[in-house]
Amino acid sequence: MSPRSLTLLKNLARNSNASSSCIQTRSVTYMPRPGDGSPRAVTLIPGDGIGPLVTNAVEQVMEAMHAPIYFEKYDVHGEMSRVPAEVMESIRKNKVCLKGGLKTPVGGGVSSLNVQLRKELDLFASLVNCFNLPGLPTKHENVDIVVIRENTEGEYAGLEHEVVPGVVESLKVITKFCSERIAKYAFEYAYLNNRKKVTAVHKANIMKLADGLFLESCREVAKKYPGITYNEIIVDNCCMQLVAKPEQFDVMVTPNLYGNLVANTAAGIAGGTGVMPGGNVGADHAVFEQGASAGNVGKDKIVRENKANPVALLLSSAMMLRHLQFPSFADRLETAVKRVISEGNCRTKDLGGQSTTQQVVDAVIANLE
Questions:
Q1: What angle do CA 261, 264, 266 make, to 5 degrees?
Q2: Adjacent-strand bridge partners of 154
Q3: What is the C-alpha to C-alpha distance for residues 206 and 215, in angstroms, rounded to an integer?
Q4: In this predicted structure, which of 192-196, 272-276, 339-343 has the lowest mean pLDDT?
Q5: Is the confidence at residue 6, as pLDDT, over 70?
């Protein structure tokens, strides 16, 4: 190659590098509609146990971000017989709710307010995202599982009665309508989020009619999404596979009870219930809360010491911001939370640290861009 050609190539490379350094990295693909920046009202239920601690953490971070939302706060507690009418009216008006855990009494005939919310608002889909957080050591790597659970029927239908003294009958209700609806949501979620596989979890080898109907509905919906791999797994084998090779799963769609068990198992594998976000969504309303239900009201000692982990609800509130079409605020919040976890200097006891809830909040706020 001649010296002149070599000089020309060097100049071309230099100009190319200079041009590339001027390219903007900020995304411009989200084009809001006029008025999308108007502040949105969100119903806030602090709940029981650690709920007030972690919801207050969200309030502080939202204020620091100047997020375009404001909260309508209501006191609701698990021992109440029903969710107060004014709270239901607020959620129906605002369409979106953020809540802490509501304690469900064991036995005694008191119904779960969590289940009541899902039924009255028809929040038919529960979504829990269980994934490895950079910097948080776990036994398994490359875990990124989304558990989508039918939320309104199955064993949670609440149809129980005592036939004769000492004999109780509990009915499991499965309908084609609800099964198809949750299957459609799971495949639509996979399609919109560039997920590659949907796994239906069942026990159709024993409950041939009920879980058989669920599987039949999933298979029919799967035919409409040829670009997404569909498979099925029996729930007991699913639990074994989760603890052995969780990275094999992508999106999982389940009936009600199985989804609760699978989501909590996956959360424990990926880092614990304190860091897994989640939400419940229907056609008109959405309620965001800590993803895994196990321990979501915490222990009294954690509350007294102010050492509740706010990460799960902070990430759930990022999901809420995205749902409200405030994606840049969601990105900022997620980035700040992940940065705090990755640095490892500020962690609550469940993640191997000794930080208080407020110290984690302060660290997240300090890392907001």
A1: 105
A2: 173
A3: 13
A4: 272-276
A5: no
